[in-house]
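ok so I'm stuck.
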Amino acid sequence: MAATAEPPLSAEGEALARPGRRPRPPSLLDAVLPIVVLIGLLALTIAFFGIDATNGPLQVALLLSAAFASLIAFKNGMNLFIPTSAVVMGGLAIARVPYGRYLRWVWPLLAMLAALTILTLGAAALLA
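replied:
not stuck anymore, here's the structure
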């Protein structure tokens, strides 16, 4: 009888699976399929655009393959809206800081950085 895998836990000890569903471990096909999709998209991009593919179409292929891998994780029951950064979650667990309290503290900084990024990119686009 095979042992069942326990779902990963957040800093508060909550399961990272979608409500009412336990995550399944990925099969070999689940693990290989995103790589095959990435290789196929890269080959098609280079076939369609040639050497000019390095300017932008390859980045689109990378984004699409990352989205495909996320869909496979969602299919296996993982919750994609819980943070998975081991450094942040480990630090919060060591400091015994709940994730909700950390979010209330860090969201103004993230909002300011997002606004600064938008303004900088907008100014660069206007000056270019």
